[in-house]
Amino acid sequence: LFADLDVSTIDELPPGRTPVVTKLFADGKREAVIGRIRDAVLQGQQVYWVCPLIEESETLDLQNATATHEHLCAALPGQTVGLLHGRMRAADKAAVMAEFSAGRMSVLVATTVIEVGVDVPNASLMVIEHAERFGLAQLHQLRGRVGRGGQQGHCVLVARGTNPKSEARLRAMVET
Fold first, then answer.
1. Are the C-beta atoms of 123 and 146 separated by less than 8 Å?
2. 0.70 exceeded by pTM
3. What angle do CA 30, 67, 49 make, to 5 degrees?
4. Which pLDDT tens digit goes with each residue over 80-112?
5. Listing from the earlier edge strand, what are the strands of the sheet with 21-26?
């Protein structure tokens, strides 16, 4: 049945890449995370901040990209903070990504539209809101967006209301 299939095993990172350091923070540590972002952008690094929702929901009490964008604009004066989500027109999404890729934007607040196909070598920090809501594959894909240049990549998982299963998943991400 499998006679004509080849198996490839990827057992190392691409040349020049180091493993991304992953940390888990409780929701109450948001201001400390913003302080870390401030330090990173002052050093010329770029940051992704991923949210599970575009806008506020009547049924879910989750951080959304629109409110996070407004909060980060106020918390990081003098820095360009962009917003990217799936409801934007394709041309608008491309323009925002071009600005971020060119280094003219310090922080990009986005939904999971950045999960694949995004390569910005200067992006060294990723914050994932409500990480407990994502599966391992999606967290791994998101984490893979940072640490692609010469700088050490960092991924901050911000979690709230974890249960034993989601906590085990997040611990697996931190440890591997």
1. yes
2. yes
3. 55
4. 999 999 999 999 999 999 999 999 999 999 999
5. 21-26, 154-159, 123-128, 46-50, 107-110, 81-84
